[in-house]
Amino acid sequence: MSVQEAWMKYDLYNPSDEHAILRRSIRTFAEKELEPQAEEFNNKEQFNIPLFRKLGPLGLLGITTPVEYGGSGLDALAAVIAHEELSAVDPAFALAYLAHAMLCVNNIAVNADDAQKKRYLPKLCSGEWIGAMGLSEPGAGTDVLSMSTTAKKSGASYILNGRKLWITNGTVDDAGTPCDCLLLYAAAERKEGERTKISTFIVTAEDKGFSVGQKIRNKLGMRASTTAELCFDDCSLPAERLLGAEGEAITHMMRNLEIERLTLAAMALGIARRCIDVMCKYANERQAFGKKLHAFGQIQAHIANSYAEFNAARAYVYDTARRLDLNKPGNRLASDAVKLIAAPMAKTVADRAIQVLGGYGYVGEYTVERLWRDAKLLEIGGGTNEAHQKNITSDLMRAL
Ligand SMILES: Cc1cc2nc3c(=O)[nH]c(=O)nc-3n(C[C@H](O)[C@H](O)[C@H](O)COP(=O)(O)OP(=O)(O)OC[C@H]3O[C@@H](n4cnc5c(N)ncnc54)[C@H](O)[C@@H]3O)c2cc1C
Questions:
Q1: Whole-model pTM?
Q2: Is 386 one of the catalytic residues?
Q3: pLDDT at site 328
């Protein structure tokens, strides 16, 4: 039995049968199908599209989407379970999953109108289409309101111009094939003295004027997920591609950032859990000075601190997931805080795992080297640690 299996006997909050079965089935998929390809796709810097499409029939691609639109109609807790399990094996694949299922699909499921949901969600939930979300730009990340991609109203259409950067699933391959469906944030043309009005749009691969710029290669981690620049050059969209009302994007963004940050925190749990498993096994096998490694106090500190910190983060992530209502914003404080706790925890635990394994930890064979590189992204994507500190403090001050 792996160390992970031993913990799972003490699963949190007496999971419902549905949640327990979900975890079991994703874990089986992860062990049988994800694990054998993870190192290879990391090395090739490629996204495993055929494997990704298999998540459709498993009901994972529209995990939080209502059943009537082709989804599974599950809650935030289910989404956390999925991200934790996938990430324990292949965080880059889990990131591609997050970009599709949370950033694109969940956002459409929560914020689009009925006709839009009927048109786009079934294909996204089945795996026929791959989705992405475009918010960040070359000159605007944390300071999102300074975005310069514009959507100018022209008759019954919107004309988009600008660039988005760092878009996971933005392209799906080396040939620059764009994602099938992009949830895009763009600003109305700024008028002197007015606040920036940002709107949400759906862009599809066929739209003229939409193209993939550079594919970002040589990333530190998350190498089996694709990252791209997306270009909009007089890209004309019919009015029905606008989600909600003009200028309503901040609400969409805020609602969706909560589940995004929570599931990124869940990815941190998967990474840490796997690293603890690897370091425990190694410390029980490797001998030095006539003893097993786990007999040494400094190795015990690495293992025990990792175990305790992982469980503290896990309790917070699951508690937040149980409270999070996908349709109502109101958990910004907790979703910022869980990611602020969980992301550095994963990086620290992965770092300790490398230390426990010594030279073997530094190379690919034992996986912890890849997990350490992947963990770093969690301190940047979906909001940097500093952005979470800023948000948490401003929310606490507002509450006074
Ligand atoms: C692999 C990868 C995948 C990604 N996927 C997506 C995606 O699918 N869609 C998408 O839209 N984006 C995506 N991103 C972008 C990501 O969300 C941004 O990188 C992130 O929000 C930070 O923005 P930035 O890189 O512009 O950094 P900046 O905002 O320029 O920040 C640079 C530094 O300054 C700090 N800083 C900025 N403002 C403040 C402040 N007010 N107070 C204190 N410190 C501050 C930051 O914390 C950071 O340390 C991805 C990024 C990566 C690396």
A1: 0.97
A2: no
A3: 83
